[in-house]
Fold this protein.
Amino acid sequence: MTTIKDIAKAAGVSITTVSRALNGYSDVNEKTRQKIIEIAKQLNYSPNTLARGLVMNKSKAIGLLVSGLTRESTKDNFTFEVLAGVNQYVSEVDYDMVLFSTTSTKQREKTYTQLCRERRVDGAILQGIRVDDPYLQEVVESDIPCVLIDIPIESETVGYVTTDNVLGAKKAVQHLISLGHRQIAMMNGYEFAFVSEQRLKGFQEALFEAGLPFHEHLVANGAFKEERAEQEAVRLLTQHPEITAFFCASDLMALGVMKAAKTLGKRIPEEIAIIGYDDIILASYTTPPLSTIAQNKFAMGYEAAKLLIEMLEGKAQSRVRVLETELKIRESTVKNHG
Amino acid sequence: MTTIKDIAKAAGVSITTVSRALNGYSDVNEKTRQKIIEIAKQLNYSPNTLARGLVMNKSKAIGLLVSGLTRESTKDNFTFEVLAGVNQYVSEVDYDMVLFSTTSTKQREKTYTQLCRERRVDGAILQGIRVDDPYLQEVVESDIPCVLIDIPIESETVGYVTTDNVLGAKKAVQHLISLGHRQIAMMNGYEFAFVSEQRLKGFQEALFEAGLPFHEHLVANGAFKEERAEQEAVRLLTQHPEITAFFCASDLMALGVMKAAKTLGKRIPEEIAIIGYDDIILASYTTPPLSTIAQNKFAMGYEAAKLLIEMLEGKAQSRVRVLETELKIRESTVKNHG
DNA sequence: AACAAAATCCGAAACGTTTTGGATTTCATA
DNA sequence: TATGAAATCCAAAACGTTTCGGATTTTGTT
């Protein structure tokens, strides 16, 4: 593998000059620079990022810490799209991306911080990490710049990107109300998840603004799981047969609710309307197709990467990015739309 | 950031001893080792992989080169699952994984080989790269150990993992034949793709063994695209109304074929049976659910990583892994199966 | 021709590890 | 007590780059 030293020898100059020539410094004669570039090409030279990173003390790589990279999580294309978005921006600005996942069988022998520090990534993006993950605090408190997805923590070195979850939920519920529904149930995620909290707020606001009462007992937590949501929906629908519509905090849970409705012999959307959240691929393929609040997951990844790298280069205006959502009306709420 | 030098100072030993203590060499007194480990912990030491990689000339990182990491490709969860599988094995053996994607807008300013060499990855896995990709040759000819997914190239430094595509296709077609179908069309991918070639072979073998004739004109290429497959299916079905079944070389194309059938008012499976290949998530959610040949995509990734790392460590028995497929019978071929 | 300024180049140190080849200490044995 | 072996330690070189501070050469001006 040819090094800068080989080039120096071949060109009859010092390694300093080769380095400076290749890096575009102005204190090297244009003729020598051309010669050096030529030789570098001939010798098929690739700079050694390890050596460079060592001396410069940065690697031009960011870490992507995800916890949803399991076999089971493929139904939910959230992680994948975020990853694609991150990848997109990162490759635009010539960074590389190293993937850390914590789905190892021997779980967590190393903390996120250790992973990041060992690989000397310049910063990290965290996706799918639960708020109660003990290591979340650690990385946030470390000096590693990072941006979180859907977790609202901000400090000198940490920012986040999220969508407007209150408004998103509100739009969904307003849609249901506009269709005449009055007894609306909500299938939420975790008690303590940020997005759950926000979406519940949007749910309540929409009811309030329409002059409708909020019934605590019409809200269940489905843990963002399909099966769990199904069980909870069955319970809710039998205990409260007056329910005519469901707002679900994720599409995956909406799938569960749809199953529940089918099990109970309730027609969608005539007897029960269902709207989800996320707009995963499956949403448009269910029977009936699922109405939902679309989040641009790709954009979330893209913006997260952009924010992080702006932070790294000291040119971030703010450390928070809030993206828009979009209401997608399909047949799980209204028959034969458009 | 603390270094072994700091530890050495604090422990009153040389850096050599610290290094050897931390790396478990036997020529350091157990008492000193404990002391060093203790101090390392106190000082919150993380080894610098850049420095280590520089001197050892290997990085304990592998590259994953994918070309399907675009916004559009999310329907097809192939890439994601392979990635999850790779990630799983890689984290089991304490390697890291750096993701290279070539979906940059400024396309291909750097070749795969350059990416790998600059980051000094020890080896690479290539997924979703087309056989006619000009850079495929390059990386295969380079001295970088790599394993390809679904591309049968083998050399001293390159291996591959694939599934038994001939048998897989055969099983699908035999299933159709066993249901009484005699006029079976095939929606293939590219002319020159390895898997297409193999699946066509399986298609022909199944026909041959059942004593059925092979009709060239009943085979179309849908480029592995949903829309393209739909168009081709419409053409085929109108030109050859005798067709009663379709074998598709991918589920995505099967979706297209299903649309075509619906457009033409043909009921599935009564008037036309459809079977796909891959078993993507969507397959079980279509109406009717799609019969298919399931590939264990996660396992493909896992095995690829395993093979690569075995190759890196010089203990690979062979450089080829062929995985099994499984016939999944759903309602797009038989009404109300068990 | 002389001199200052500008342009071009370079030696050496530094980054944080591993490893080689030997130095020193400890220990058991004669 | 002397001696060799075993155990324990260490100095220095090496990996490939960047950068600091200065050295050398070229150029322009008078």
